[in-house]
Amino acid sequence: MPETNVVTWNAMIDGYLKNGDMGTAWVLFGKMKMRSSVTWSEMIDGLARSGDIVAARLLFDQVPSEMKNVVVWTVMVDGYVSNGMMEEAREVFEVMPVRNFFVWSSMIAGYCKKGDVKEARVIFDRINKRNLVNWNALIAGYAQNGFCKEALEAFGRMQADGFEPDGVTIASMLSACAQLGSLDAGREVHDLIRRKRIKPNQFVLNGLVDMYAKCGDIRTARGIFEGMTRRNDVCWNSMISGLAVHGQSDEALALFHQMEVSAEKPNEVTFLAVLSACVHGGFVQEGLEIFSKMKDNYGLVAGIEHYGCVVDLLGRAGRVSEAYNLIKTMPMKPNDVVWGALLGACRIYSETEMAKRVELEVGMVNSQNGASDDAYYVVLSNIYAASDRWEKAEKMRMVMAENGIQKEAGCSSIALANEFIAPHVSLRGP
To answer: Nearest Cα to 396, choosing from 372, 409, 410, 380?
Structure first.
């Protein structure tokens, strides 16, 4: 170029950063005679996203005061957030002269990603003037962490404040409804999509399929699925999983085979769903063949959940010794669910010797790992419960109680006239 200016230099640096070439970006940055705030923010962002957060902070501290605008501050905060360093992000955030909506949302999303929903809400409540992005960050964070009731209540308050939902909001809402298993709330969100004429993009359509499938309305889920012009792996997995969970194992297997010849190939989640279908349908040979396909055909690594499904599959078919041998060859330590599946099969088929071996095995593994007696009682209690041996499980719980051993309690939720959804606000808004 006969003439270059700060804009062209920035464009080149941005190009190298987007292609992961930090070295050349650094060289160009060093050669620049004049830099703008864009130059500094690009380099800080590039360093942070490459994982070199120390260098990003050093560069941030070198930014001339007249160029350290709200974007530069935001990029530094977001860099810390992206690297999971919320304490450092909070430190910079608190001394920002001015804050924009993006940095508020970044902090909310960062805390939610860490599972600290309470602190995310504290940040949200400090925003003087909120926008849709801020609300979406909070609602998505609630849904991602399983605070589904709170997500639905926030959705109602958002509308009461005069904000119209977009595709991002809807996707989070559908996820919350799916997790709660609330078909009525899910249908209300679907109706909202139609009334507000929200464009049903890939995320919204995936959310609808997932919600209807998890809530048991397989027919509607399948109708939306079949009407989609483009399906990604998330959509296929939701549909296969929905069919499997609701006892339509034949249909789940058929859909899996359709996916195999489609543009989207199965992943680890797909195989978990279809193995579950084999367990529910009693398709032993098909399940074993599908399990083998993971590595042989697709180069996927089976996780403990996949092994657990196969152990359960073999156990239910009375092939207890094969199930035990599979556990012994697993590349990872078996958990309570895996042992529980085998112990349940021992109970069904009166395999008392194998049951004793399992109990002994759990005790030996516990001892070799240096775990306490407390942990042993908890594990064995969970295994008995997973295998429906409630008397044994209760006996273990009594021993735990006598020894003062605490186990974190579980909880369930039910819907009574939609009370858990939003007691004071309607999903429809004002």
So the answer is: 380
For residues 383 and 392, what is the distance between their CA atoms, to the nearest angstrom? 10
Q: What residues contact 116, with CB distance under 8 A and at least 6 apart?
A: 86
In a domain, 241, yes or no: no
Distance CA 71, CA 180 (A): 39
Q: Is 88 helix (H, G, I), strand (E, B) or coil?
A: helix
Contact 138, 172 (CB under 8 A): no
- What CATH number should be reported for the domain holding residue 90? 1.25.40.10
Residue 415 in any domain: the answer is: no
Residue 75 lies in a domain: yes
Domain boundaries, position 395? 324-407
Answer yes or no: is 394 within a domain.
Answer: yes
Tokens 């789940």 — which residue? 252
CB of 342 closer than 8 Å to CB of 323: yes
How many angstroms separate the CA atoms of 197 and 199, rounded?
6
How many domains is the chain built from? 2
Quick check: helix, strand or coil at residue 128? coil
Separation of alpha carbons 40 and 205, rounded Å: 39
Render each residue's pLDDT in the chain as its tens digit; 430 residues: 899 999 999 999 999 999 999 999 999 999 998 999 999 999 999 999 999 999 999 999 999 999 999 999 999 999 999 999 999 999 999 999 999 999 999 999 999 999 999 999 999 999 999 999 999 999 999 999 999 999 999 999 999 999 999 999 999 999 999 999 999 999 999 999 999 999 889 999 999 999 999 999 999 999 999 999 999 999 999 999 999 999 999 999 999 999 999 999 999 999 999 999 999 999 999 999 999 999 999 999 999 999 999 999 999 999 999 999 999 999 999 988 888 888 888 878 878 788 878 877 776 555 555 444 454 455 556 666 665 656 666 665 665 566 565 555 555 555 655 554 443 344 555 4
**Cβ proximity of 143 and 179 under 8 Å:** yes
Instruction: Tell me how crowded residue 313 is: count the other CB atoms within 10 A of its CB.
Output: 29
Residue where a domain terminates, one of 65, 99, 133: 99
| Torsion 287-295-222-176 (CA) sign | positive
Q: DSSP per residue over 67-124, as a string?
A: G--HHHHHHHHHHHHHTT-HHHHHHHHHT-SS--HHHHHHHHHHHHHTT-HHHHHHHH
Q: Are 347 and 388 in contact (CB under 8 A)?
A: yes
CB distance 425 to 160 below 8 Å = yes
**Buried b or exposed e, range 204-217, using 16+ CB within 10 angstroms:** bbbbbbbbbbbbeb
How many whole angstroms separate alpha carbon 207 and alpha carbon 226? 14
